[in-house]
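Notes from hallway chat w/ T.B., transcribed later so I don't forget. T.B. wanted the structure written out for a chain they're using in a teaching module, and asked if we could keep both sequence and structure tokens in one place. Agreed to drop them here.
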Amino acid sequence: MQKSNSLILLSVFLLATESIQARETVNRTNFKSQKEIIMENETNKDVLFFTTGDGCKIAYRIDGDSSKPVLVLSNSIATDLTMWDGQIENFSKYFLVLRFDTRGNGLSDAPVGDYSINRMGMDVLELLDHLGIEKAHFCGLSLGGFIGQWLGIHASERIDRLILANTSPYLGSPIWNENIRSLRSEDDIAPFEEMFIDGWFSKEMIENQKETVAPFRKMIRNTSPVGLAGSYASVRDADFRITNKLIPNKTLIIAGKYDGVTKAEHSEQIHAVIANSRLVILPVVHLTNIESKDEFEKLILDFLREN
């Protein structure tokens, strides 16, 4: 692992120039001004890019000591890698933290058309290959949890321990097609802002912790409608209800008691079929890393560091 991780620093050095150029050219669409706004965030000043096999530019960032084991963090839909800012101080004490913007979200490209969890999972594997990382822990929340399930099924040898937070094995619903049609016809993300915020946080938090919620409003507004539509398609078409039993990895499943989309019962379904899994249900809605930061971090650190 140490030999593999040493390649990361070399890769970062070699890609510094490419990163600067990519910031000028990424997603040359009508969302360019929004991308520039995102780049003003302090976290994104150290963002790098790599290009997948199908030509999609993916944004990523590395924090921590390259001699430590790698922990990959994968975001919720309509967010970017800054959603993990609050975890970096604690996680980087023990891990080299690699986070990335899922295709269609954040600073990554937003190709036209439907995406798939299969392709998103391949993006992760190609990123690991790009950085010379043979194996890593993986923590995915919401959409990131869908990606984590795919990795556990199809590339378990590349994943050490797996964390699936606020996710589901299946969310098939007619609403996905309605949302996709709306995004592709209206080309407007605004109608989705309150839907996401209400689905992510408790009413108390929305009303009384506006400074905590505000960055997530910005993430939603900065999401490409094209990218969100493609991401919706990936969730619409995913179904791991049967194949999750193939996941051999030691797995921690975290659910929100009041989650109205990726319900606690969905996490129970995942737990029921993954033999080597543990389920914890927290008294929160959806973004457990924000709503219950200390408990979320303790659960993950204890899980990853235990024998």
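Follow-up for T.B.: The chain has 14 helices and eight strands. Might be a good example for the class.
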